[in-house]
Amino acid sequence: MVAKRAIEKFSPSVFKSLILAEDKAVSLPSSKANPATIVLAGATGDLGFRIARALLKRGAAVRALVRPGNTKPEVAQLRELGAELVEVDFNSVIALTQACSGAACVVSALSGLRDVIMDGQKRLLDAAVVAGVPRFIPSDFCIDYTKLPAGSNRNLDLRREFNQRLDQAPIQATSVLNGMFTDLLTGQAPVVLFGLKRVMYYGNADQPLDFTTTSDTAEFTAAAALDPTTPRYLRVAGEVATVRGLQRAATDATGQPFKLLRVGPLGVLGVLIKVTKALMPTSDDVFPPWQGMQYLHNMFTGLPKLAPLDNGRYPEIRWTSVREVLATRK
Ligand SMILES: NC(=O)c1ccc[n+]([C@@H]2O[C@H](COP(=O)([O-])OP(=O)(O)OC[C@H]3O[C@@H](n4cnc5c(N)ncnc54)[C@H](OP(=O)(O)O)[C@@H]3O)[C@@H](O)[C@H]2O)c1
């Protein structure tokens, strides 16, 4: 009764008849005979696919929600791996509620701007609540935005806003914060410049920075999805490295000496971000160049440094070092 009132208060617009789903939905204890069902949104994406794989490896039943007509190869691959594929209209709370029924946890690995991170995840959250799913993991997977001032990073502002909503919902929420995907250091992030044999940075070369590979983040998220005792935030870093640490890792990984290249104080990066933003046409690209620069700026300030780290929570996870990742670059 209390749960029903909470749901009605949280989602007044959600149809009363759907409340019935609450009575039917149960949180199933995980066992080999009766594995926990994890509903996964974004399973066709880079991180989501790896989360699906890690969940299946751990014996979970994975229900991957995909947009109707998705023909990505990942759809067939997920099916082959043993996931249940459910085509669902992400604009319909009713459809999402049916898709969430009986799950122990809903995991979102969606990527996008306001229409996805706020609007899409809100519908998914409403659905999870009405279906009686006990736990929700939002698509955060970033530096610690809770320590950053609002307005300092567009994509992280959306996460903060969604999580404020999540905190009001009658559901147990856990965010996974992992710093920067280490994989980005082999190309997308303009930090380790392989051609010039330089590590480029702004500000302080001794500022600790958090890096976790996409795969390690997925492994950890899968373990967290199956763990009913997770706290509100879990923070991990496959490696905490300073710019000097990155220099050593690049040198070790390539066998060639890397030097440091300090472009200037952090203020210079701030100006470059403003100029890049002004010069670029407005687009709905989730990661335009200035977004990556903004992310680096945030990291170099030290404000969103992850602490304390929960790396040891699932001892079976082996964390991949920056050097190992840099060594994979062709
Ligand atoms: N910390 C870091 O350095 C870092 C780096 C990259 C990403 N991330 C984060 O990791 C998370 C996942 O990112 P990713 O790189 O794996 O993303 P991705 O590869 O672009 O995948 C996005 C997923 O979201 C789905 N999706 C997008 N818009 C949707 C919509 N409107 N309705 C339903 N599904 C939709 C896509 O489905 P379709 O197959 O239908 O398109 C796909 O499954 C995000 O939170 C992202 O910000 C963190």
How would you sum up this structure, described in words?
The protein is of the alpha/beta class and 330 residues long. The protein folds into two domains: 2-178 and 213-235, NAD(P)-binding Rossmann-like Domain (Rossmann fold, 3-Layer(aba) Sandwich), CATH 3.40.50; 181-211 and 239-304 and 317-327, Alpha-Beta Complex (UDP-galactose 4-epimerase, domain 1), CATH 3.90.25. Helix content is 40%, strand content 16%. The chain has helices at residues 2-10, 20-24, 46-57, 73-81, 93-100, 114-130, 154-168, 214-225, 243-254, 266-279, 289-301, 322-327; strands at 37-41, 61-66, 84-87, 105-108, 135-137, 172-173, 175-177, 180-181, 192-193, 198-202, 209-212, 233-235, 239-241, 259-264. Strand 2 (61-66), helix 4 and strand 3 form a beta-alpha-beta unit. Helix 5 (93-100) packs across helix 6, helix 6 runs parallel beside helix 7 and helix 10 (266-279) runs antiparallel to helix 11 (289-301). The longest helix has 17 residues, at 114-130. The termini are far apart. NADP nicotinamide-adenine-dinucleotide phosphate (NAP) binds at residues 42, 44-48, 67, 70, 72, 90, 109-112, 116, 120, 139, 141-142, 178, 180-181, 184. InterPro entries: NAD(P)-bd_dom_sf (IPR036291), NmrA-like (IPR008030), NmrA/Isoflavone_reductase-like (IPR051609). It comes from Hymenobacter jeongseonensis.
Short description:
The protein is an alpha/beta fold. It contains twelve helices and 14 strands. Residues 37-260 form the NmrA-like domain.
What percentage of amino acids are in beta strands? 15-25%
Output the helix-strand order: HHEHEHEHEHEHEEEEEEHEEHEHHH
Instruction: Identify the overall geometry.
Output: globular
Present as ligands are: NADP nicotinamide-adenine-dinucleotide phosphate
Structural class: alpha/beta
End-to-end Cα distance:
59 Å
Uncertain ranges: 1-29
> At the first level of CATH, what is the class of the largest domain?
Alpha Beta
Biggest beta-sheet profile: 6 strands, parallel
Rg on CA atoms, Å: 21 Å
What is the topology, as strand order, of the major beta sheet?
A: 3-2-1-4-5-6
> How many domain modules?
2
Q: What is the CATH H-level superfamily of the largest domain? A: NAD(P)-binding Rossmann-like Domain
Number of strands: 14
Helical fraction equals 40-55%
Keywords: NADP, Oxidoreductase
Protein name: NmrA family NAD(P)-binding protein
Organism: Hymenobacter jeongseonensis
InterPro entries: NAD(P)-bd_dom_sf, NmrA-like, NmrA/Isoflavone_reductase-like
